[in-house]
Amino acid sequence: MNVKRTFGTILTVLGIVGLIYAGYGYVQHTVQARELIVVAVIGVIFFVSGIGLIKNTKDEA
Question: How many whole angstroms separate alpha carbon 14 and alpha carbon 1?
């Protein structure tokens, strides 16, 4: 099993969770705007880097 692809999957899932949390907090108005912005930015960074790792990792047997 490829470690880069696994790490990319983990980063992608964490990014999705962060984006969902930021979206939910924005809709419910439960947390401050600064916290939502930080979580959303970190979520986007994790999501994009995870997708990049999955996309650019070649399958080697």
Answer: 20
